[in-house]
C-alpha cells in the first residue's frame, strides 16, 4: 500500500486531507510535531513515504508584508528542504501553492504556464517554493495552486461572513476582485487522486490548478453564503477594493485555468456554486 505523509495536518486543508486519505496508509504531522524549516527533522520525517503532501504554510498574507523573511522560510526555503528530502528518498511531493504567484491582471483565467509575477510578499515566498520543487523534482514534483479556499476547520472568508452575519445588519464586501471559491474538502480529494495517479505513472510532474470552475467576486460569494445559510442576501452590499486598503496587495483576477488535468485521469473540480451548496450540506454552517 502507498504510504502518505501529510505535513501541516492541523490546518484546514491538512485535516481534510487526513479524512480524504482515510483508506490509505497515511501519517499526518502538525506544526508542533514537525518543524519544516529544520532539514534534519524533515529528512527523518520523509524517509519511508511514497507521497508527501505539503499543506504546511505561513498563511497570514498581510503579516508576510512585515515578516517576509519568516514567511519565506516556511513557504519557500522549507519547501526546498522538503523537495530535496523527497528527491533523496524517492518520494513524490505534492506542494500546495497559490494564485498569488501570478500577476492577477486581465480578465481571463491564468493558464498553468502563465508568467509568474507575485504582487505581495506572500506570493514571492510561495514562488520560491514552487521553483524549488520544479528544480529538484522535475518529474516527481507536483505544484497544485489553489485560491479562495474555505472549509470547516480554519479561519476563512465563508466562516467570517457567517460570523459577521450574526453581528451586523448589513455587510459591505468588495465586488471588484474575482476568483474561484474552493472547498478545502474537494481540493483534498483531488490531491488524493493526483497522488494516486502519480504513483501509478499516469500524471506527469508539473503545475496544476486546484480551484473550482466558474468565477465570482467576494461580493458574489458573500451573497451565496447568506443564501446557503438561509439569510437574506440583500444584507450584503457591494463596495470597491479602495475602501478596504490592506497591507498586502490583492490580485484583481484570481481565476485559474485547469488544462493540465487533461494529461491525467483526475477530473478538474466542479462549479463553485454547486461546491458551496454541498459544503453547507456536509457541515459548514
TrEMBL record:
<keyword id="KW-0560">Oxidoreductase</keyword>
<comment type="function">
    <text>Catalyzes the reduction of dTDP-6-deoxy-L-lyxo-4-hexulose to yield dTDP-L-rhamnose.</text>
</comment>
<dbReference type="InterPro" id="IPR036291">
    <property type="entry name" value="NAD(P)-bd_dom_sf"/>
</dbReference>
<protein>
    <recommendedName>
        <fullName>dTDP-4-dehydrorhamnose reductase</fullName>
        <ecNumber>1.1.1.133</ecNumber>
    </recommendedName>
</protein>
<dbReference type="GO" id="GO:0019305">
    <property type="term" value="P:dTDP-rhamnose biosynthetic process"/>
</dbReference>
<feature type="domain" description="RmlD-like substrate binding">
    <location>
        <begin position="4"/>
        <end position="280"/>
    </location>
</feature>
<comment type="pathway">
    <text>Carbohydrate biosynthesis; dTDP-L-rhamnose biosynthesis.</text>
</comment>
<dbReference type="GO" id="GO:0005829">
    <property type="term" value="C:cytosol"/>
</dbReference>
<dbReference type="InterPro" id="IPR005913">
    <property type="entry name" value="dTDP_dehydrorham_reduct"/>
</dbReference>
<dbReference type="InterPro" id="IPR029903">
    <property type="entry name" value="RmlD-like-bd"/>
</dbReference>
<comment type="similarity">
    <text>Belongs to the dTDP-4-dehydrorhamnose reductase family.</text>
</comment>
<keyword id="KW-0521">NADP</keyword>
<dbReference type="GO" id="GO:0008831">
    <property type="term" value="F:dTDP-4-dehydrorhamnose reductase activity"/>
</dbReference>
<dbReference type="Pfam" id="PF04321">
    <property type="entry name" value="RmlD_sub_bind"/>
</dbReference>
Amino acid at each position: 500500500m502507498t504510504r502518505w505523509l501529510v505535513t501541516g495536518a492541523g490546518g484546514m486543508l491538512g485535516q481534510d486531507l487526513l479524512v480524504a486519505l482515510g483508506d490509505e496508509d497515511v501519517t499526518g504531522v502538525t506544526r508542533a510535531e514537525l518543524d519544516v524549516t529544520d532539514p534534519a527533522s524533515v529528512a527523518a520525517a520523509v524517509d519511508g513515504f511514497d507521497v508527501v503532501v505539503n499543506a504546511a504554510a505561513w498563511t497570514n498574507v498581510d503579516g508576510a508584508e512585515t515578516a517576509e523573511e519568516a514567511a519565506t522560510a516556511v513557504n519557500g526555503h522549507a519547501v526546498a528542504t522538503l523537495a530535496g528530502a523527497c528527491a533523496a528518498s524517492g518520494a513524490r511531493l505534492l506542494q500546495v501553492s497559490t494564485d498569488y504567484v501570478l500577476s492577477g491582471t486581465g480578465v481571463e483565467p491564468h493558464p498553468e504556464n502563465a508568467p509568474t509575477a507575485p504582487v505581495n510578499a506572500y506570493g514571492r515566498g510561495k514562488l520560491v517554493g514552487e521553483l524549488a520543487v520544479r528544480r529538484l523534482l522535475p518529474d516527481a514534483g507536483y505544484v497544485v495552486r489553489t485560491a479562495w479556499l474555505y472549509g470547516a476547520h480554519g479561519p476563512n472568508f465563508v466562516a467570517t461572513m457567517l460570523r459577521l452575519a450574526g453581528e451586523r445588519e448589513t455587510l459591505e464586501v468588495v465586488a471588484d476582485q474575482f476568483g474561484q471559491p474552493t472547498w478545502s474538502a474537494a481540493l483534498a480529494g483531488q490531491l488524493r487522486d493526483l497522488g494516486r495517479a502519480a504513483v501509478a505513472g499516469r500524471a506527469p510532474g508539473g503545475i496544476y490548478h486546484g480551484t473550482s470552475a466558474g468565477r465570482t467576486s467576494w461580493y458574489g460569494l458573500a451573497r451565496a453564503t447568506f443564501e446557503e445559510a438561509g439569510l437574506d442576501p440583500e444584507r450584503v452590499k457591494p463596495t470597491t477594493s479602495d475602501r478596504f486598503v490592506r497591507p498586502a496587495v490583492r490580485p484583481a483576477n484570481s481565476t485559474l485555468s485547469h488544462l493540465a488535468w487533461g494529461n491525467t485521469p483526475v477530473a478538474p473540480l466542479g462549479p463553485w456554486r454547486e461546491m458551496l451548496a454541498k459544503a453547507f450540506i456536509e457541515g459548514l454552517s
